[in-house]
Amino acid sequence: MKNLKYILLLTLGFTVSLSSCEYGDENIDPTRQADVQLNLILPAAITQAAYNQSGTAARLSGILMQHFSGFDAQQNDLENYVIDENVLNNFWNFGLYGGVMKDAVVMIEKGTAEEQPYYVGIAKILMANALGTGTSIFGDMPYTEAFLGTENLKPGYDSQESIYNYIQTLLSEAITELSKPAVGGGPASGSDLIFDGDAASWIATAHALKARYFMHLQKVNNSNASSALTEIASAFTSSAGQPDFTWDAASAFSNPYALFGRGRPNTLVINQGLVTKLGERNDPREDLITDGTNFYTEATVGDGGLFWTVNTAPSPLISYTELKFIEAEALVRTGSAAAAQTSFVAAVQASMDYMDVEAADAATYIGNLPDISALSPTAAVEAIMNESYIALYGQAELEVWVNYRRTGFPALTPNPNGVKGNNPSGAIPKRITYAQNERITNAESLAAAIANQGANNNLDVPLWAFK
Known about the structure:
By secondary structure, this protein is mainly alpha-helical. The chain is 52% helix and 1% strand.
């Protein structure tokens, strides 16, 4: 896809792979280029953002949400809630701070200096999305002091409330930048691996992400449902407009789920509870999600392959299916029951269409959906979450976990064999332990962040956003 093999080599060569948040002179590699062109930084950042969508954090979220089961090795530990500071250490260091976030900072600074607003706008969208990913996993996190280099090698943590405010600000600023006139030399095919430099599509994506992150805070502020609806009105209007990153058919550059399935076979499998749910519902997507045991198969879709885990499976930053579920919930919460039902049906239809389910099978399934306009608001939200739980499988595992933590749906039973060491209540974990590297290199700031969120680093301490 769009010279992906070449781009992934660029990712290895130009994405700054550093530990913690320390970006001082001692971290400069003299063998690397000191200055990299914007059109080479952008594909690396986009590729890392896509990897984050389907990589380690996604697999962990899928295990917690009982989409996947850890059968062996580390995955079995995760299944049993043995989740320590090493689990997402690389994700924190290289997926977020030394990966997409550092690339975004460089693009914002360089793009501003070179008067390239579209690079700046896309970078701010990628930064906002990375912050949303990070804060929904860990809570408080460094941002305002994270990229100061030798000026501050031990950055303080911003509160989760502040991080969500920064997300909305970044997305608003991105829309402003992308609304400016095009400039020669801006993003194009080969550098923008999602929209080929189309500013309008990125603007629509920014509005969609604003809606997602407003709904993250629905428990904190009920008016966020209205704000989400405002943003959805300016977001993309079909699956064709969503920000898809499609991976390459070559095994070395394939979807992260496929890479994991080959590299660590039989350590992660499909959760049998999910298989049962799919069967009970006569869900026509069942054969596209699992073969009954595996979450991954090497065949292509249409030839026995599973839609979200084959080599070329897409990694959408946010999908139209997710957006319509957000809209349905927001309409329920603002008292528009009839409109909520329309959006609810549209969300399920979008999932069916995107996965190329036979029209007759999709129609039968949709015909059996509950009419949420006739339900109480709580029951309507539960119905929406139950359907999104299936539809967001494989494409937005972290969002399924977010939805569970903020609504309590779907009703899931914690693993009765879960280890209670740093999860004393035995509940499905509500957050993930901070990365080991932070304890080693930034202990004082980390301790302050932990104290600010509940005085310990346990998995069952709810984050501010989802209390």
